[in-house]
Every structure is written in structure tokens, then in C-alpha cells.
From TrEMBL:
The keyword Transmembrane helix applies. It is a single-pass membrane protein. Belongs to the glycosyltransferase 92 family. It comes from the Eukaryota. It is an enzyme of class 2 (transferase). The keyword Glycosyltransferase applies. One of its GO terms (molecular function) is glycosyltransferase activity. Its main location: membrane. PANTHER family: GLYCOSYLTRANSFERASE FAMILY 92 PROTEIN (PTHR21461:SF45). Pfam families: Glyco_transf_92. It comes from Oryzias latipes. This is Glycosyltransferase family 92 protein.
Length: 436
């Protein structure tokens, strides 16, 4: 009798198990159980370009960064958008082998589009809970049928166990174009930055001459220069200036604002300060031996300053130092300007608008233009020009001034004993130095 009862109990348990299995897996009850998704391997979908067209739009994505400084958002995507075609988009993440649900994208436009059809736009995204996101992209539909054709951006500035040594100074230069080949001045500027304490120079390269390419490859191999290829003219017609009525095109000055902002975010977790300047400018402390000592002196009082504004002083390139002491024979066949030969400086006309250039603390900056930060989480400080200013060897800005009305400024000569042999070494490494 007991055996019969035991068999009956076992039979009923097995029957119950079968009924439950059929019920939860039937088509009408798929909501009860979610089959384990098949993991995806992402690398073949990851964009390998600095400019990525966004599928089914007129827009382009540049890069993505972790950024939780705005409440409710986790990731900032820097993009180039057609300003009259911004429609709702949806963020989707790759979470360690699985795709996330979508979250709505928010847009933060830049004021500095200069009236061109395309301009920089920040896209802000929220990461769903329990998603350890490594990559992100944008969709035009909230629940797309197929996402296999999407290109994904790696999310930079994520917290990892690999601790990268934090640098003090990064210089951002944007952009090289028009087969730029001012080799001598570029070499002198890079070597000056080394002497002043800069750790890395980031360059966005649209096109430069063959000699400059060889030079930059050497600096890239040693880790001092980071080259970002920037083929913007493959996708748009960039202008060669900033005045839309004069300089025609789709996007201001080869995407200058986009690259400056990208460089700030690229440097945010690895550099304490970022210098934003042109190719032909050198930031120069006049009361300190280098940038480190100058910023150490300023930091106690101005630790919450996001942007340090500095005057840019033009050294007209038509006037030369008369003795010719730095007209060196080994540089005679090297293309470009010799900065040591220009010692005459204009005083800026402070009665009219005089644009500044900047040193910024990247963690306190949200969006920047060329001459000022547009959105920030800190203050502003105008650095006295006697303390520090930019040396800008350029065509004369105040054309009415005669030579005797200019100031003699030989600050660069204070570095000539180290600068000249360092320049020679770099040029020799690139095969550009004339042997005597």
C-alpha cells in the first residue's frame, strides 16, 4: 500500500513539472520566461574612424566619453550634426556581450557654429541599470528590427583598473590642412613645449606635407605627439575660415570647434591642464622657467578656475633680428619660419576686442570655443600679460605700426642653448637636417 502511494506521488510530481514546462514556454506565455540571449562579439562593428556617419541621418559621430557631471546622464557623444535636421534619437549600449534597451538621447548644441549648416552637437545618454557599457551608438527608432549594420563607438574615460599616469600639460592643435609644411617652426614649437613642461601634443591632421609627415611620425613614435587623422573633407565641404559669408562651406574651419572639444574630453582623465592654441603660437611664461612652476603659483588661489585667459601677442614675420645670429646654416634647406629670428612684438590694441587663448582645467569645462569657454563648472581668470602670454609669429595685425613702434622681446632666446640642439636632433631623426 505504501509503495503504491509513493509511486502516485512521484507520478503527480512529474506530471506537474511537465505541465509547468509546457505552460511557461508556450507562445502565448513568452512574457513569463526570457531565453538567455546569445552573446555578441563587437570588435567587427566598432568604428575605426575619427568621423563616423550615423545611419539613416545627415549626422556624424566623432567620439564618446563617460561624463556624469550633468545629473541623469552618463555618456557624452561628440558629433557633427546638420543643424536643421535634428530629430529624436535613441541611445543603445553594448554591455559586455549583450545589447541594452534603448534610452532617449538629449541634445546640447554649441553656440559656436558660426552660422554654418553643420555644427558641433553633444548628445547625452543615460546607461540602463545593470549595464556595464563599453560601446554606444545612436538609433533613429526606439525598437529597431535590425542593428547589425550599426557602427559603435568605444566609450572613453571609463574607470578601469589600469591606472594611467596623469600628465600635467597637453597641447591641443586643430587642424592641419592644405598640405601644411612649416617644418622648422613646427619643430621649434614642439621642442619649446618640451622645455616648458608639456607632456603631450594632440594634432588633428587633415593633410600636411611629406616632410612634416616624417617629422610628426618621429614624435608620434616617441609618444610626445598623438596624431588623430581628420578626413573631414571626405564627408563635408569644410570652410577655410570662420566667416560664413566670406568662407563658404558646410562646417566652420575644418571642424575646428569639434576637434578642440574632442581634445578636451580626450585629455580629461589624463591631463590636469589643456592648452588650446594655433600651430604658430607658443604659450610663454615670463616670470617662471616653465609652465609647471607658473601654474603651481596660481593654483592655490585659482583652483576652481576653469579657463585661464591669456593675451596673444603678434610678432610680425616681416621683421627680422638684424644680426642674423640665428640664421643657422644647417636649417637653410628646412622649410618654414625660424622663430628665433623674430623679436619685434606688437602691443595689442586693447581699446577694441582682443581675442585671448586659453589654458583650461578640462574637468571643469563642458563646451569650448576658440577664444573662450562656452559652458563650464568653474570660474574665469584673465592672466596678466606680464606674467604669461602667447608668442604668435604671424603677419602683422596692427599694420599701421612701424618697426620703431614695436617692442623688442627676446624671451625665446633664453632657451636657445637647449632649443637649437634639440631641434637639430629632431630634424636629423626625420632625415631633414643638412650636414655641413
Amino acid at each position: 500500500m505504501e509503495i503504491r502511494k509513493s509511486r502516485a506521488v512521484i507520478f503527480l510530481l512529474m506530471l506537474a513539472y511537465l505541465l509547468i514546462t509546457v505552460f511557461v514556454t508556450s507562445p502565448s506565455n513568452t512574457s513569463w520566461i526570457v531565453p538567455k540571449p546569445k552573446p555578441f562579439k563587437l570588435p567587427f562593428l566598432t568604428s575605426q574612424q575619427s568621423i563616423t556617419p550615423l545611419t539613416n541621418t545627415k549626422h556624424f559621430l566623432v567620439s564618446a566619453f563617460m561624463d556624469q557631471r550633468r545629473k541623469g546622464f552618463d555618456v557624452r557623444i561628440i558629433g557633427i550634426f546638420r543643424r536643421d535636421s535634428i530629430h529624436p534619437l535613441h541611445c543603445i549600449f553594448f554591455c559586455g556581450g549583450l545589447f541594452s534597451e534603448t534610452t532617449p538621447a538629449s541634445f546640447l548644441s554649441h553656440f559656436a557654429h558660426f552660422g554654418y549648416p553643420f555644427g558641433p552637437v553633444d548628445v547625452l545618454c543615460s546607461i540602463p541599470e545593470s549595464c556595464k557599457a563599453t560601446h554606444v551608438t545612436l538609433l533613429t527608432k526606439q525598437n529597431p528590427v535590425n542593428i547589425s549594420d550599426q557602427l559603435w563607438l568605444p566609450i572613453r574615460n571609463r574607470k578601469t583598473h589600469n591606472k594611467e599616469t596623469r600628465m600635467n600639460f597637453t597641447v591641443c592643435i586643430s587642424t592641419l590642412f592644405g598640405d601644411y609644411n612649416n617644418v622648422l617652426q613646427f619643430t621649434q614649437s614642439l621642442e619649446m613645449y618640451k622645455l616648458l613642461g608639456v607632456n603631450r601634443v594632440v594634432i588633428y591632421n587633415n593633410s600636411c606635407g611629406p616632410e612634416l609627415t616624417r617629422l610628426l611620425n618621429g614624435y608620434s613614435q616617441e609618444g610626445f605627439v598623438e596624431i588623430i587623422q581628420w578626413p573631414i573633407n571626405k564627408y563635408l565641404n569644410p570652410s577655410r575660415g570662420w566667416r560664413v559669408r566670406v568662407h563658404k562651406g558646410d562646417l566652420q574651419y575644418f571642424g575646428q570647434i569639434v576637434t578642440l572639444n574632442e581634445c578636451i574630453y580626450r585629455s580629461m582623465e589624463r591631463s590636469r591642464y589643456v592648452l588650446l592654441n594655433d600651430i604658430d603660437e607658443i604659450i610663454m611664461p615670463y616670470q617662471h622657467d616653465n609652465l609647471n612652476s607658473m601654474m603651481e603659483a596660481l593654483q592655490p588661489k585659482y583652483s576652481k578656475v576653469a579657463e585661464f585667459l591669456l593675451e596673444s601677442h603678434v610678432f610680425p614675420n616681416k621683421y627680422f633680428e638684424p644680426s642674423g645670429r640665428f640664421h643657422l646654416p644647417q636649417w637653410s634647406n628646412v622649410s618654414g619660419t625660424n622663430i628665433l629670428e623674430h623679436i619685434y612684438r606688437e602691443d595689442p590694441d586693447r581699446k577694441i576686442y582682443h581675442p585671448h587663448k586659453m589654458i583650461v582645467q578640462p574637468k571643469l569645462v563642458e563646451q569650448t570655443s576658440v577664444h573662450e569657454v562656452l559652458r563650464k563648472f568653474g570660474g574665469r581668470y584673465i592672466v596678466p600679460w606680464e606674467l604669461c602670454r602667447f608668442i604668435h609669429i604671424h603677419v602683422a595685425r596692427r599694420t599701421s605700426l612701424k618697426l620703431e613702434q614695436l617692442n623688442e622681446d627676446k624671451r625665446l632666446w633664453d632657451f636657445q642653448e637647449k632649443l637649437i640642439p634639440n631641434v637639430d636632433k629632431a630634424l636629423k631623426r626625420a632625415g631633414l637636417l643638412t650636414e655641413n
